[in-house]
Amino acid sequence: MKNMLIHGGKKLSGTVVIGGAKNSTVALIPAAILSRTPVILESVPVIQDVTNLMAILDEMNVSSTFADCVLRIDPSHIQNVPLPSGKIKSLRASYYFMGALLGRFGRAVVGLPGGDDIGPRPIDQHIKGFEALGATVTNDHGAISITAPKEGLHGARIFFDISSVGATINVILAAVTAHGHTVIENAAKEPEIIDLATYLNNMGAVIRGAGTDTIRIEGVAQLAAHNAHTIIPDRIEAGTYLAMAAAVGDGVNVKNIISEHLDAFLAKLEEMGVVMDVGEDSIFVYPSGDLKMVQVKTLPYPGFATDLQQPITPLMLKAHGEGIIIDTLYPKRVRHIPELVRMGADITIENDVIIVHHADHLEGCEVAAEEIRAGACLMIAGLMAEGDTTITKAENILRGYDRVIMKLRNLGADVELIDEAAPAEQALRAEN
Q1: Which of 308, 312, 342, 375 could form a disulfide linkage to 369, CB 3.0–4.6 angstroms apart?
Q2: Where on this chain does UDP-N-acetyl-alpha-D-glucosamine bind (predicted)?
Q3: Would the pTM of this model clear 0.70, i.e. be above it?
């Protein structure tokens, strides 16, 4: 277990460079096993999820090396083994191995996914897509077994009941090597879908319409990577640092940004009164004056991202009036609220609606990061607070934020990561 210790109350200034998108990376790594040749990914974020996915690749006899944000994956000697292990349980995005293994081998056995506890995220749309392609799906003691017919997967028209990023990605991974033509309707439109399609098309896939609600795929026999792929910048990391800069910044430049990916978030910051200079690939955030309270409603892309409702919450505490946050995607994503209240926030939950009031003062204390974005929220609140804030379960923050301690320190934050010794180790230290 790791704790993040923040000595709050210090203004941040300088430049922070955003890393590659976590939500692209966790799909691109499983997708690499579709290639018959070695794969090179550039601008890979240094996060725990990458380490976890590399460990899963290793179980399949897929070698990988990671240095200087470049990940090299060699699937030449891949073995199709069941993946019901603990590593799968700890990482929700590991379910992309379902589509990737099905597309590569026609069979996949993958443990039911874990990840952050932010409410129900069923995989029924994934299963619906696999079955439409001709696969048989069964649940065998907590592991999903997916088998293509003897003649292989076939193209199909698939209409998702809800616009699901995970299901869209998984069906793309299975369909790129299926026989014939596949049409995915009500597909997710997130930038990470476009990134995946670009990556696969450069391997020889034929995918059209990524970024729209209708994606068309012509199946090909096999894929092979020939060029390195550079991952798009992480819009959620960017939004987190923009909110942080507005909350505790004394002039912060956030670089390596695709601002179009943040249109809904930037509009909300502007509505609050945050002053920014939006450049070609960077945004400079000026020190904040008086801020106005806003209403936030999360929606599928291009709407306000659910992953940014928590990072914007501490900034809203600085605004005057009453603010409302409604998460239409994950209404139970509120585990950060009791922690903020402990720090002195005037914030309540009524019927899954978060109601925010101005808080003149936050006081550092011990809080828990129950999931990635809750951790980001508490990190910003800790920087705003007087005194020391200890964030337990900080490994959740490390799962999603690239070299976060280094980046915060470069901005002038007084922050450190502390390993919490296991009880047996603590006892041993005491004896010595």
Answers
A1: 375
A2: 92, 121-125, 307, 329
A3: yes
